[in-house]
Amino acid sequence: MQHDKDSARGLAQLEGYLLWNAEVEDARRRAARFTNQLPWLTRGQREDVERVYTADRVASSGETLGRISDRAAELRVEYSERYRLLRRRCLAAVALAVGAASGTCAALLLLTR
Q1: Among residues 21, 39, 41, which one has the least CA distance to residue 29?
Q2: Has residue 5 got a pLDDT over 90?
């Protein structure tokens, strides 16, 4: 069982690593596309702009990812609580239905004697 959890955790980490690297590479591509629109830049200026643009884009992506992660954690807590409440209500409804059915059966049994 622990082996399965470790494998799942490792796969999730690998997926996160690959997704983050794809995001960084996308930022680099966008930076290059941006500097291609500025043909008057020298090679050094182009490299500086691409470096700054990439860093800004990666930072922005990291902040967005952090907000999404925080919200997912909040929703997990919220939905877990809703699920517990719904489960309690369902169990109460089942207990009430079983009690009512038992009571009805007992009443019918006593009436038919």
Answers
A1: 21
A2: no
The alpha carbon of residue 106 and the mean position of all alpha carbons in its chain are separated, in whole angstroms, by 51
Here the tokens at position 9 are 């955790």
Q: Which residues of 88-102 are buried (b: 16+ CB within 10 A; e: fewer)?
A: eeeeeeeeeeeeeee
> What are 67's two structure tokens?
């907000």
Tens of pLDDT, residue by residue over 90-102, are 999 999 999 999 9
Classify residue 103 by burial, with Cβ atoms within 10 Å: 0-12, 13-18, 19+.
exposed
